[in-house]
Amino acid sequence: MKIRTRIIKVDPENPEDDKIGIAAEEIKKGNLVAFPTETVYGLGADALNEKAVRKIFEVKGRPADNPLIVHVSSVDQIYEIAQPNEIAKKLIDAFFPGPLTLVMKNKKVPKITTAGLDTVAVRMPDHKVALKLIELSETPIAAPSANKSGKPSPTKAEHVLEDLGNLVDVIIDGGETKIGLESTVVDTTVYPVEILRPGAITKEELEEYVDVKYAEDFSVAKSPGMKYKHYAPDAETIVLVGKNFLKKATQIAEDFVKKGYRVGVAGLNLEEKRNDVIYKNFGRNLEEMAKNLFKVLRELDKECDVIIVQGVEEKGIGKAIMNRLYKAGRVFRI
Fold first, then answer.
1. Positions at the binding site for ATP
2. Structure confidence by residue, pLDDT tens digits, 132-164
3. Residues making up the binding site
4. Annotation: binding site for L-threonine
5. Top-level CATH class of 236-333?
6. Predicted model pTM
7. Which sites bind ATP (predicted)?
8. Which of 18, 36, 97, 165 has a beta carbon 3.0–4.6 Å from 174's, enabling a disulfide?
């Protein structure tokens, strides 16, 4: 059912209580609010309201066995909904608030939110708008990325409007997100703890506090990003990993252009080589690439039939970037 979406622009550094309060009232009514975090924009509903959470799945077209991350604004709120063990407590102390989600034993979150699991994924965002919204809503907020399932995640309010305009009650416009990739997700119910989805907080950073490995069993999705196609443009997406990216990408682009396709090339520190190809720069380094990845993919998807993307070494945040690119398209070593 289409509704009239209200866009509320706020100061991300000093969010106005009266403006955030309007959105919080919608959460209390069981409605949907899109809001910025430090990672991507989230599509929020009262995590404890089954009817409200069901709207998230309907609006996104999200499979019911894909659990949602529950966002909190305080450590006390974590203990209201989850049962942190000693390892989880250590990671909470080290990384909350921040781009880390912890899978813990569930205490009171409805099964629709957890996809029927006895665990719940929880994080405390490091973003003043998100924290204020949760605080004024007086409830934990379940929030996946605020886009249609399978598509690149939104890093600006206008991305949310493109995907979900007239399907959500309020979009809080807090500007562009800082990190640009979804949170790292760690399962603390197993030992060593397992990274279910890589993000801005790297394996190396986690290893300073706990023993950790990457998950290998994806038969049960304990967190988002594990089971289904994600982050994919409509355009055919080809990811090239290795040296001489621009040379190889230009050769491939030439072949597609000859066949009448519109082609885009995206990478780090690119120079334009052809007039009939659209070139987009992710930035100068991996941090800038992470921030701009989804934005650039969305921009090229509007103009191109084929997108050729530069892959990167799977170290540090490069692991998170490649995790998204593996799901967005076909990956080739060059």
1. 62, 66, 119, 145, 153, 197, 231
2. 999 999 999 999 999 998 889 999 999 999 999
3. 39, 62, 66, 71, 119, 123, 143, 145, 153, 183, 197, 231
4. 39, 71, 123, 143, 183
5. alpha beta
6. 0.93
7. 62, 66, 119, 145, 153, 197, 231
8. 36
